Amino acid sequence: MDGTGKVQQDDAAAEPGNGPARPTNIDIMGILGTLPQRYPFLMVDRVIDIIPGKSATGIKNVTVNEEFFQGHFPHYPVMPGVLMLEAFAQTGAMLAVETLGGPHITARLGVFFMSVESAKFRRPVIPGDQLYMHVTIERHRGTVWRFYAVARVDQQIVAEARFTFMTVPRDKQSEYRGGA
Fewer Cβ close by (within 10 Å): the C or N end of the chain? Predict the structure, then answer.
């Protein structure tokens, strides 16, 4: 990856007869070109090990400069669990986009949380940690996606959850807000 968002290709997929090459990793420029979130709400710095239709791993480099640490908690900074759930969802959105064919799809679709289930937080995530979020597709039917996610720091599980989201065409999003 060269910082332009270009993806590293899976060598096996690039061999003749194996179908089109698929990305295995996406850097921050590729994420910015795909997700609508921006700092301070962008919770994924890189996505690796993407297997479209199956799984991906998001990486969040947790630094003391994150705005949420100013209030959570000044004397002992801890990453809020709800932001880990958001990081899971952003990693899942990147996986869904790759499964559907790539970042061009995000110009037409938005992603909205539907549910979070069985969320568990096992230990605090603090500045200096590198959060690895492995997200697996459990089910995908039409516009609804269900995932299982596990976050690790130094190979230890720090959080896990099941979550569901819906992809919605951008021109129909007002209907989901109750608008005209």
Answer: C
